Amino acid sequence: MPVTKHAFSADGSVTEHVLSNSQGTSVYVTTWGARLTRFLIKDKSSVLRDVVAGFETYEQWQDSLLIDDPYFGATVGRVAGRIHPCDSVTIAGHQCTLPEIQPNKVCLHGGRQGFDKKVFTATDVSTKHAAAVRFMYVSPDGEEGFPGEVELSVTYSLADDDSLAISYHGKLTKGSESILNPTNHTYWNLTGFAEPTILNHICSLSATHVMATHSDHPMIPTGQLQPVVGTALDFVSLPRKFGDRIGEFDDEVLRGYDHVYATSTAPTDHLRQVACVWSELSGIRLTVMTDQPALVMYTGNWISDKLAGKYGVRYGKHAAVALETQRFVNAISIPEYRDQVLLRPGDDFVHNVVFRLDTVK
Hints:
By secondary structure, this protein is mostly beta strands. The protein is built from one helix and 28 strands. The chain has one helix at residues 58-65; strands at 3-7, 15-20, 26-30, 35-42, 48-50, 74-76, 82-83, 89-91, 94-96, 107-108, 121-124, 130-139, 149-159, 163-174, 178-179, 183-185, 187-188, 202-205, 209-214, 217-227, 240-241, 258-262, 272-278, 284-290, 294-298, 321-326, 342-343, 349-359. It starts with a strand and ends with a strand.
């Protein structure tokens, strides 16, 4: 399976790698943030559509950060999601202070300069079955306040059935303990942004519970699991459009879906289907399978309408949906789930996710 590469930044220090298959599907990933920048696939009428959000060049991406940073396509970490309180995180027997990214002592997505802002090395690891590139980054001890040196590899593999597999492997190379919980933060619009929002996308989830949050801090999970059946969070009883009940959320706090769905209570040794989303307009369907216990579903509630991306597309509120597979959010601060994210010498951190695209009439 072919892989090509070209410069993504003007000086050539950041490269973009193109994975292709025999169906005419192409996936683009950059060394900056091991970031998925394009996913080109044919719709039900054989029209090629780019179904992920992003920007044309590294320089345009840097300019966009001055307006807003939705983490389009990025590998985020060391720890995806929120950690609270970020000024008193106990790791390796010591109290660590992590950067406050959001008010009230909240660290988000690994800090100010997380994995999404780092330049990875890239190696073509393609086989006869899939086009594949492995991205590697070594996070030094103390980076963004996290103890220990951590080595992370992120391998993207595109198969002929239009399945994109992402495999994460991490290990602690120096130190006695750290934490690790990366995810992929791609935003999907299965119409290729022909429809400016995903409100007409139909969604089905496997999870019957979400992580409850603090009443005075509605984005921070408590560790308790609450049932979704019969609520606006229910996508398990019957598939339905995002737009059907999205208006029930407080426009000042949530503005839409930004919830941690519990697909199990711990990582498993096999892939399970956790989500299926499709567009009637394009016929493109996205199925998500993972071995991780959580799926964070975020409907782009706070994407700035000042962002203009590839092909001149203007993004904005609800322009696309992120489906982030990972360990439980804020696990390090929840005693019963701490072990999900702790990384010790000899541990092999593993996280697998498959995004399979096909078309339905």
